[in-house]
Amino acid sequence: MRLSSAELRKLALPLILATLALGAGAALIWYSEQQVLRANSAVLAARTERNQSREKLARISEEEREVREKIEIYRRLAETRVLGAERRLEWIDSIQRIRTSRELLDLRYRIEPQRLLHSAPGKSGNVDLNSSSMKVELALLHEGDLLAFLADLREAGNAYVSVRRCSLSRTGTGAAAQPGTTLAPRLRADCLIDLITIMDRGAKL
Fold it and tell me: What is the CATH architecture of 88-173+184-200?
């Protein structure tokens, strides 16, 4: 079927309009797809940013927890006076008090010169762990006297007390006490004890 020229002229305008409508529809579909892509990208970026914020907040919370723990450890060390230079005079006074309160008649000790155990980088300087070894000889009625001495020494503070070694030897059978006499020591302890202090050269003590 062939169309005449007049009929073709009548169809020209509708065809042009239909073509324009199809083009506009295609453009609208493309624009809508682009908007959807942009919206999806924005959502993904927002989710990524939210996740990053959560991770950052979690790291900050963890760092705050660690800082609080370190402050608490530092406070406890400060209370026990482990921080700072060695306190030999206070150690001697503490041992004398323990000797008197525990009635340790034969107690001999010698504190060696201080030595560096470990040095680690600190905020404004090194944090040094220093040790002063103390050799102790004790005459004991029983093993409990040694445990009480070590407990009192730790309780006195001024250093972290680390027992490197202790040996016990029997000195006699320890006969029963007679009226008006005292019990004779039956054991002797030979100990090597480290008195450890911490010097933080970056702290204002």
Answer: 2-Layer Sandwich (3.30)
CA distance linking residue 160 with residue 195, whole number of Å: 6
Tokens of 195: 């008195």
What is the full per-residue pLDDT of the chain (205 aa) written as tens digits?
Answer: 565 666 656 666 777 777 777 877 788 888 888 888 888 888 888 888 888 888 888 888 888 888 887 777 777 766 666 777 788 899 999 999 999 998 888 899 999 998 888 777 765 557 788 889 999 999 988 888 999 999 999 888 788 888 999 999 988 655 444 455 467 788 899 999 999 888 876 655 4
| pTM higher than the cut 0.85 | no
Residue written as tokens 């059978």? 173
H/E element holding 108? strand 107-111
Distance, in Å, from the CA atom of 88 to the CA atom of 110, rounded to the nearest integer, reads 11
- Rg of the chain (C-alpha set): 42
